[in-house]
Amino acid sequence: MSAHDDMFSAEQSCWFVRKVICWRAAASVAWAVLLLPPITAAFVILSRFNLLHPIQTISECLSLLTSASAVFSLILLCGVILVVGFLNLEYYTVIPTIACSKIALLGQLLHPRQLLNSLVHSIMGMIVAWCCAINIGGRYETLGYPCPQSDGSDGSPQMCLNEYHLALLLAGAFVGFSHSLLGVIHNMNYVSFHTVQQYKYLRFKGSLPLVVKCSATQALYSIRNYIVVYFFLGYIPKAWLCKTLNLDSNSSAHPLDSIAGLLDLTLLYHMWISASFLLFTWHITLLLFRIFVTEVYSFPVQSSFTEDAHQCLSKVLADKQPMILKFLALQDLALLSQHSPSRRGEVFSLSQPGGHPHNWNAISRECLSLLTDLTQRLVIYHDTVATNGRAKSLSTGSERRTSSETSAQRVPLTAPFTPDLDSPFASPALRRLTAPVEQCSPWFGTVQSPHVMRRVPKLWSTSTDSQVNGSPQSSPASVPSPKQEASKPSLLAQFLQNRKEQLPEASSQALFADSQAHIWALEGLSYLVQASFSEDQFGVVQTTLPSILSSMLVLQEAVDRHFKLPHASSKPVRSSGSMGDSTHKTLRFALRATLKTAIYRITTTFGDHLKAIQMSAEHRKRLQQFLEYKE
Amino acid sequence: MCSLALFPPPLPSGQTTLCESNNELLSRTSTEDLHKQESSPLSLYFPRESLKLHSRTESSSKAAFLDHSETLWMRSAAAWRDGGFTGLLNEITNSHAEVPPWLSVSSGCILALLRKVSSFHGSLFPHLTLSSEDMIAEFSQVLNWSDCVVRAFAWHPHTDKFAVALLDDSIKIYNPKSTTTPTLKHRLQRSVAAVQWKPLCASALAVACQNCLLVWHVDPCSLSTRPSSGCAQVLSHPGHSPVTSIAWSPSGSLLVSASPMDTAMMVWDVALESCVPLQRVGGGGVSFLSWSPDGSHVLASTPSALFRVWETRMWTCERWPCVKGRCQSGCWSPDGSRLLFTVQGEMVIYALTFTDAPAGVTTCTSKGPQAAAAVADLSETTFNTPDGDIIVGGEIQSLCWDPTGERLAVLLKGDPQAADRPAIIAVFKTRTSPIFELLPCGFVQGEPGEEPRLMQFHPNFQHGAQLTVCWSSGIITHVPFYFLSAGVPHLGLSGSPSLPRPQARPADFANQSLFTELIS
């Protein structure tokens, strides 16, 4: 735990992470480990299945599964699952990190923390692939085998390199690596909360077919890319291994980095099913982690003991860290305000000596500050865009023309590849090819939109809640300083200028990245206000009703203004075939809808009584629109 | 148990029901009503001839072009695109002259096998063999849907506007306070089975279409009469078509949709455009949905003799197997505690009572009743009218309960072949105390030769209840029921919804029993 905050809040966040989050993560990993043997058995059967001898296959599989090597590989796989579970816990975030430009995305990909993640995933991928090789058996089983042609001229038979084994291991490493890259691009570490509450088992069961489907498709694409890479670069690891391990490459067998070698359908099938197995086990672990972590946690509204006071809803809501705690508290607030009259009663209650509505005050203050915060953010963003928008768009327009010429002259190789950088199916290999060009620029990380500039610390440091999870926080010094390469800076600058602001929606998405919190705050407030009409005996809500209404109306105005900006209301393309959660892309629409519904909920409940509330003429006009259902 | 024999006889031919006042249904003769029809701004008439029906079907344009000989590859690719795997197999089997014989034979075998399997599946769930139009007609709440001029109708839950889906796949929105009537058309808006406005929102209208779900955002202040299709959100999920029923949650946050082809019921977060499939095997699909007004339960009936009641907190369900047929229709009491439903093949209305979990106990499973109680018998009854005997009763097409919970409208199917068995709307008065019972109120009838197809209560009628009926001729009429409701919150607000019911019901049943005892 990084010792940055004051002791008290650190202690508070400790209790939740220690008592709840860690246990939930552990439970999810335990379930993933328990699921591993059946998944492995299914994999073995699928990989060795022979249509002509079904019974023989099954008996073979059974004997294999009970063998020592299979048990050993199972233990290894368990270790991998444990590491994956640990990485999930370490890297997860409830607020997605959204790259506002391709360069920012590249920055994320080349972040040391991410590089470490990719490295670990590659190694784990290789381990899983080794286990797969053991389980498939046959020609994949060992790295070396006695060469057929060297019939013991001297005492020890000459060992040859088993290229099938090597190809499978490298495929595992490649799939692991691309999985971690895709994880960044698709925000796979983002944990979203569902609007529909379901029991954990049912939710797991419901998302299982999706996991199978996207593991299989992702494996297919990864293997396709891998084959391309292996075809071109496969000789490097082969030669290196032969040299270091003193193995012969068997010249009589087909080399695999040839067209004939790679057209071996059995090999392709085995690679694909191994990759699917790998991705499926990891995705299952991720899915279980998401399900367990986002489970509703019921915080007490008030506590009768002072030592538990910091666990109360009102206290927990005010905490800044960890984010997951705040999110779960807001989720609990939204649910209690809808479903639980008794807990609502506690919110509306007065403190026993003194008669102050502490609970309501704390809760409403926290929710209102969230809303005000969002309003301010939107206003600042709008002002920035309004001041720079016109001039900037003119300049980029002219520069785009020149840069397209220059890039065509200078980097003919990368030009066709770069537009695909964020496409889900772009080959990671190509992505790596294009990477150095952009990385070695002196403007790396500086040529960004004003909005991104403000988010720079966030881009380079880790996201907020991962710091709390005890990760080594990358200090600013550890930011990789871009190499100063002075070759043709003007061209590169223009090239980068071309690359910036290529994700026009992204800045809008980034603005609303944590809007799930605001959505819950709006729901919680509006349901509580609605319930207060009949349940609030002491009139505690009445005192804050004007400020609630005015902050909602101000936010409504800001949101309306934001949606008038170009790109803000354009819908993102939905990518369904990935484990990454794309709900963050549409959060702004959800916020807009929830905001309107929340205001309508209050106006329909109170009706014309709202006319007795003190508010500015402008707000009154706006409210009248809502009362007449004209918004 | 109430039965049709207690009802006052139907009106003689030529008389139409006007309204309920002073506890009796008033009628008028059809000759004097023409000017009255026009005086009411919300009564509409859509003549069948005025609708321009498109006769386009997807495959019909093919015949208009000359046969062009393409290569086998091109044809296979086209078949794959148009007809999927079975289309490809069909193409290969049919072009046996060009492909190697083993390929055409094996694809023919696979095709036969697939057909066997699907016919076996279809024999388990016969509705799966229907075409999507027939399926919508079969499971729609609208009587004789395929022949209806008005295919769907929805009042806005808070204001006086409504949406009407017509036979030509357009939707019109009428608002008495505005002169513009926006017409909604969309490429994907075909075979509209249901429309519903989003609660706590002025503009969003969900439309259940043949292949998808559309959510229109119609700005109430806009003067445009043809909102662009950009105003519509398209929500679709593979395998989830045709959509026959939709229901918004009363809090406006979620939308559920059902298709008889899909065993999963979709819960949509419309703004996020994300959906959660709630899959339960058994039943072979979901045909009808109804969300209880308090938001706590959802009725989901299946094409088989089984329906489910979901509780919406943790989305678990209770299974309710029926003896005879599928659950045809259902409706909830305003407080969400009572469900009335009808079963296909039976002439009875059943009631289920749900008691809330005690306050403070967070049990997530709803502990419902053990068996349904029959509350009304609608078996065929013969009435002697001046025009001869009329047989009323039989199977029920749909049920509708008004938002105050005091009038229940039942659309009886009748027999289209027999002239003396008309489709008719029977209206009951409902009483919850001391015991729940239905009391007869009367029949709602239209012009001679018209039959009711679709009905809905106005969600916030100030002076009782108002039933809107869409007739087979394309006329939409409104039948008000004037009564003093015990349950209406006396807020004195215009346009205030019935949704929040803050005051507990006053035990003011004196009025009510006075009314009902007069008749029974």
From TrEMBL, chain A:
Transmembrane residue ranges: 25-49, 61-85, 118-136, 164-185, 227-247, 267-289
Locations listed in the record: Nucleus membrane; Nucleus, Nuclear pore complex
InterPro entries per the UniProt record, alphabetical: Nucleoporin_prot_Ndc1/Nup (IPR019049)
GO (cellular component) term, any one: nuclear membrane
Biased composition (Low complexity): 471-482
A GO term for molecular function: protein-macromolecule adaptor activity
Keyword terms of this UniProt record: Membrane, mRNA transport, Nuclear pore complex, Nucleus, Protein transport, Translocation, Transmembrane, Transmembrane helix, Transport
GO biological process, one term: mRNA transport
Keyword match Transmembrane: yes
Lineage: superkingdom: Eukaryota
Biased segments, Polar residues type: 461-470
Main localisation: nucleus
Entry membrane topology: Multi-pass membrane protein
Region (Disordered): 391-422, 461-488
Keyword Protein biosynthesis tagged: no
Main function: Component of the nuclear pore complex (NPC), which plays a key role in de novo assembly and insertion of NPC in the nuclear envelope. Required for NPC and nuclear envelope assembly, possibly by forming a link between the nuclear envelope membrane and soluble nucleoporins, thereby anchoring the NPC in the membrane.
Similarity comment text for this entry: Belongs to the NDC1 family.
Name by which UniProt lists this protein: Nucleoporin NDC1
Organism in which the protein naturally occurs: Collichthys lucidus
TrEMBL record, chain B:
InterPro entries noted in UniProt: Aladin, Beta-prop_Aladin, WD40/YVTN_repeat-like_dom_sf, WD40_repeat_dom_sf, WD40_rpt
Residues covered by the Aladin seven-bladed propeller domain: 131-482
Protein origin, superkingdom: Eukaryota
Gene3D superfamilies referenced in this protein's UniProt entry, alphabetically: YVTN repeat-like/Quinoprotein amine dehydrogenase
TM spans (from-to): none
GO cellular component: nuclear pore
GO annotation, biological process: nucleocytoplasmic transport
PANTHER family the UniProt entry points to: ALADIN, ALADIN/ADRACALIN/AAAS
Name the UniProt record assigns to this protein: Aladin Adracalin
Taxonomic placement: Eukaryota, Metazoa, Chordata, Craniata, Vertebrata
